[in-house]
Design a protein that fits this description.
Length: 277
């Protein structure tokens, strides 16, 4: 049986460990194509009993997933009805996070670069995330564009970090380093950059080598929290803000100022704060 190919992902296997390398130049924005690739991959793996652990990392050492593609503001099909094709109660961005969060395999993110917006939501949706000290960064900067996180970020942060820290993360819109993200509960651990590969490889291998049925038994005993009601609230808040003229203008201004270029993404929070209507 032939395996699907993914233009934005490189997928390899080794004795139950599936390694997924994200590769969507120039800065790994979460485009519609990447979302489609990730959803197809997760759906395919869901019925694959030989896959035990899925590890996500990036081909770009500086960017894991930059954020959702801002050029979607110019795609009427992408923004007209973000719930089209998504499970009831979710939008397409939330659907990706929930597919990852409820995957039967153990999902691990190895974060060695920056992940903002939808990228940070993806990190928080995984079962486990590990961040490289001095290299990883996490941020929910959506409010600087006049919107709120719309891919599950508010709910994942509430569950992981608590309301007070979630409010700081979302409203402060800063980039968080690996050690602070660990302290807040956003990631499992912050690890030295020269140790993270070996640590994640060993953890993934040890989990994949567990006796048959063990992973499923543990995941059934520790089920993901039911976030359905919160997802509806988040989507309604996101949709209200996205429909405002300010959001579109801010997105276009950010792109014109250099967002989604390598230099612009390195200073994205500063760039977004400097954009005026």
């Amino acid at each position: 049986m032939s395996q699907p190919t993914f233009p934005t992902l490189h997928v390899t296997r080794d004795r139950g460990v599936v390694k997924v390398v994200i590769d969507n130049p120039p800065v790994n924005v979460l485009s519609l194509a990447m979302m489609a690739d990730l959803m197809t991959l997760l759906t395919t793996l869901r019925e694959d009993e030989t896959a035990k652990v899925v590890v996500f990392e990036s081909a770009d050492p500086e960017f894991f997933i930059a954020h959702v593609d801002m050029t979607l503001v110019d795609d009427e099909d992408a923004t007209a009805d973000p719930t089209a094709g998504a499970p009831a109660g979710l939008n397409v961005f939330q659907a990706l996070g929930e597919a990852l969060r409820t995957q039967p395999q153990v999902t691990i993110v190895k974060l060695t670069g920056m992940a903002r917006g939808g990228g940070a939501e993806f990190v928080a949706a995984a079962d486990m995330s590990f961040a490289a000290i001095g290299r990883a960064g996490l941020g929910q900067m959506e409010v600087l564009g006049g919107i709120v996180p719309g891919g599950g970020g508010t709910q994942y942060l509430l569950a992981r970090a608590g309301r007070n820290r979630a409010l700081e993360i979302v409203l402060g819109a800063d980039l968080f380093d690996a050690q602070t993200a660990e302290r807040y509960g956003w990631v499992n651990r912050a690890l030295p950059a020269d140790e993270i590969d070996a640590f994640v490889d060993r953890l993934a291998r040890n989990i994949a080598d567990l006796p048959d049925g063990t992973i499923a038994a543990v995941k059934s005993a520790l089920p993901p929290q039911d976030l359905a009601a919160g997802m509806v609230r988040e989507h309604e808040a996101w949709a209200r803000q996205f429909a405002r003229p300010a959001a579109e203008k801010l997105f276009r201004s950010a792109l014109a100022a250099g967002a989604q270029t390598r230099d612009g993404e390195r200073r994205l929070e500063q760039l977004l704060r400097s954009v005026t209507l």
